[in-house]
Records
---
Amino acid sequence: MVESEFPRSPAATLSALVGGGLIAATFLDFALWPLAWFAFVPILVALERPMRARRAIWLGLVAGMATNVPPHNLGEVCDALVALIDNPDLTVDDLMRYIPGPDFPTAGFICGQAPVREAYHEGRGILAVRARAEIETDEKSGRSAIIVTEIPYQVNKARLVERIAELVNERKLDGISDLRDESDRDGMRVVIELKRDAVPEVLLNQLYKHTPMQESFGVNMLAIVEGRPRLLTLKDALRVFLDHRRNVVARRTAYDLRQAEARLHRLVPAEFQFQVVVFFQLNRLFGRFRLTGIRYS
């Protein structure tokens, strides 16, 4: 919230919010809740939002809603917003040139571009996220090792190592001779050493199949828009945020205008208010001429 947007007094702030239509009563009228939060960046798209909401109805029925929006790179989202402002007719495919896909904090990679395109076009989809692993071979001993440097989103590294060890002890994974975690401040590094007769590519596929090295992320871009749940595409999510920012800026400007007019009434007599307004407007106009180098007489 901008400091100059509302009065500093809590009572005056609450009165301004209710009068401005930004706070309304809850369903049972026992509390107040905000209709919108002030944000300078699209939090719904930039940050991952796993939420579940339920609303009780008088008859005892319950409506359940869930949303799961993947996180995105903030710089890419801002670039897409600027492009959408310049050209509102951009399609989802055009916006994907700025936002090619989600940006998970634990990295990893998404298998294929088709699931991402489907999720952005329809608002729903399932993304297969894999850990990033490399195969290294020791020239002296001839043994190979699988080095895991990135894991899927919301996967615990310690739990992943424990799961691999459990599969080795249960003899469901053959060919692993040693397992250790060499992660430090420089980054993640899980080393899976293989036996001499093991085929690294085959064992890596087994790890993807039986361990959390491959997980599915269900995209559900459901949001409350104008009081109703709505499934949003990528373009819809960005456009809703732009509409919200226009509304916030318009309300802030209207409030600043009311405050300036009230201060003008207190400081300047009524018969001189018009002359004062004209003076300040001309001063601003001439100031622009000075900045642009235009001469006037």
Note: The two ends are 44 Å apart (CA to CA).
---
Amino acid sequence: MQRILIIMATLAMACAGAVGQLQTLTQSLDNNNVSAGTAIACNFGAPNFENAGTNVMRTYNLPNEGVFTDIEIHAVRFGVDGATSPGGAQDVTVTVYLDPTPGNPAPIIDLIPLHSQVFSVPDMASGIFTATLSTPVLFLQSANADIVAEVSVDNGQAAVEAFFVGANTAGETAPGYYMATLCGQPQPVDISTLGFTSHYIIDLEYMAANVLRPGTGDDLVTLMGVNAELPALANSRTLTVGDVATMTHLSPSGSMVQTGPVFVIGTILPTVGPTIPEPFAGLYVDAANATAIVTGSVAGIPLLLPAGGLTYSFAYPGGLGGFSVYFQCIISTSVGVNGILAGSNSLEVQFL
């Protein structure tokens, strides 16, 4: 049974569960050679060709790409066809999104940003740049959602900066997408529909990964952010005194929205000691040490999962050093895999 796409991993996840070696996922028949002058970018023209704001994207659906394992994305690799700046380098933003509606990533507002990072790219006439992500992004293979990799270059007119994401005409196995508001394309569009025959080089570098407590295999995830971070998926996270944790329980494709009462169970156990039991397939609860954090109702009214997910925060005041709490979201619903309930991944929070 297909497991729904899960959103983000942290460095802790990478240490705990990653297996195998880095591999490259590409849609370019030649992903190593940039053909000079084939790149398309919105720019201000001669003499400096400063960028006017350009976003280029590729979408990857893992089963369609022949990938049937869970993966961690460690880097986005892209071509450069002319980058010039007075300072010798310029900022380029790389973003990885979840697209819950596979295919064309438009409308952009529906994409869920999973990781965004600014990279300083040195001036070059032509070449390949590998943007290694500070936080790996984890996906469980599914046909129900796409990975979208975006390379974004801001308006460079004031700084006299020009940047063209590299391309060639060797062919591709799936379309690339282009967006540039100042050039009349406020939403991503298949670049071939604009009459161009070149193809952007935007690859993913990934490795196989392992989620330790994946849940029941339903469209339901538990995510956590610490302080200013976006909520992210991990096997475990750590909190020190004064940290603020933000928990999000989400149905990425929406199939669990409004389907039944929502419970969040927290099980407290020593961080070093017996592992949390699995008394029922996909549930991770030690009844003797568990408490209901979300109880399924508010003032007697059933609490149903909202379309945007259920989010709450708490500060760690101290006093739990050496202990972990395992958070798992459970929905009482007949639409889940087992027809009784749906359980998210179980996320361990280690308290220092």
Note: The longest strand covers residues 71-84.
---
Amino acid sequence: MWMILMRGIPGSGKTWLSNYYVEEARKLGLSSIVRSTDQFWMKTGSYVFDPDFLGEAHKWNQENVQSSINACVNWVIVDNTNTTAWECQSYVEMAANANYNVAFRSPNTSWAFDVEECFQRNTHNVPFESIRKMKERFQSNKNIANHFLGKYKNKYSIGSNFNDYSYDLVTV
């Protein structure tokens, strides 16, 4: 059982990569689901963002992720920006409590950290300055994994799959 935390700035390719993992799970005969805070903002087929409800949107997504864990979905994919450890915290905690392995994944697109290109590609009209700030605060997958490894030292160890774009914590 895996929780796959997608990480990256808007427009970097996280949703494409999430969908790729869904297809890979299907090929392996595993259940999977993508959970995204963006889904909260979908109203009659259109994306309608309201910053006044951001906290509620994240809580809604966390509840959906927990429901997926409770249903024993094999791969729970969280398609959010998750730029810092604190943004990943509640998801890693849920995974740890349920004995799920945790995979931190970032798109390895050539434009993944090109703010101008991501601004052009993002589908939710995230302002340029917001994307720039997300890039500035982005912590590497290695730093994020090590942060949680320290916090859950009796629960996880570093898996064999790691590079700039992916880092795994596996249950011990």
Note: The chain is about 40% helix and 20% strand.
